[in-house]
Design a protein that fits this description.
Number of domains: 2
Order of helices and strands: HHHHHHHHHH
Distance between the termini: 97 Å
Protein name: Sporulation protein YpjB
Helix content: over 70%
Largest sheet: none
Keywords: Membrane, Transmembrane, Transmembrane helix
Structural class: mainly alpha
Number of helices: 10
InterPro entries: Spore_YpjB
Number of strands: 0
């Protein structure tokens, strides 16, 4: 009995520190995720100064975590740092409108979730708004409706920009590059997409790539505790991006008219 007790005691001494370290690791990761979500809620409430302070606090916590755990790759650190810097810059930019600030911090929020979540990442729940906007763009192209095509395409690009860092964190680089190349082609050669059959074929190919991507990424179920974040983030995008895209399109039109007058 004394031998069994001694063995049990030794096992406890070995296992306990590992368990404590694992719990510390989980709590640190969850803290980073929580800070990013709180920053997004502050921005939604137009509390930009508070959001900036929280984002700067995140920077210190993120640095401390990476120094202690070495849990992220160089690419992950680069992508997250870039998204964070853009979010902080947006908080200090007095000329940037509210919707764009939300988009910047949403991009950061989704990137943090992509590197911290063990379930289906939040950015994959953007499939419905993204494909809805894409459907409007495709329909407009098929009907030759240039104005609606440009408006929907601008909205689609805004949404794509929000999830792009998260995609790079979760999706193989070759697949991201393939989707990115198709999107850049459609954006760069808008008149050809509207006027030529090959343009419509490119839209169909992109639609297939996007659906395959989301289907593959949706194999795991999302953590139920994150559904409220998914719903609020999706609502932000659905409500704001169509307006942002339309305004961007109108702005481009105004610049074209101004050039013609010169």
């Amino acid at each position: 009995m004394k031998l069994k007790a001694a063995i049990f005691f030794i096992v406890i001494l070995i296992v306990a520190p590992v368990t404590i370290q694992a719990n510390h690791h989980i709590s640190s990761i969850e803290k980073l995720d929580q800070i990013s979500d709180e920053a997004l809620q502050l921005v939604k409430s137009s509390r930009y100064d508070d959001a900036k302070k929280l984002l700067e606090y995140f920077s210190n916590e993120f640095l401390a975590y990476t120094m202690e755990n070495h849990g992220f790759s160089i690419d992950e650190l680069r992508i997250v740092t870039l998204a964070q810097n853009e979010a902080i810059e947006a908080m200090g930019n007095g000329s940037m409108d509210h919707d764009e600030r939300i988009n910047r911090v949403t991009k950061f929020r989704l990137a943090i979730d992509a590197i911290t979540s063990t379930n289906q990442p939040l950015w994959t729940e953007m499939e419905r708004p993204m494909m809805t906007v894409f459907g409007g763009m495709k329909d407009a192209a098929m009907q030759g409706d240039a104005e609606n095509f440009h408006s929907h395409l601008n909205s689609f690009l805004s949404l794509y920009e929000v999830i792009y860092p998260s995609m790079k964190l979760d999706v193989p680089v070759q697949r991201v590059q393939q989707i990115d190349a198709r999107i850049h082609f459609i954006d760069e050669y808008r008149p050809r997409v509207l006027a030529e059959e090959t343009g419509l074929q490119e839209l169909v190919a992109l639609e297939t790539d996007l659906r395959d991507l989301f289907n593959q990424m949706s194999e795991d179920e999302a953590d139920p505790s994150l559904w409220w974040v998914i719903i609020t983030t999706g609502s932000i995008i659905i409500v704001t991006l169509s307006y942002v895209g339309w305004r961007k399109y109108k702005g481009n039109k105004e610049r074209e008219r101004a050039k013609k007058r010169m």
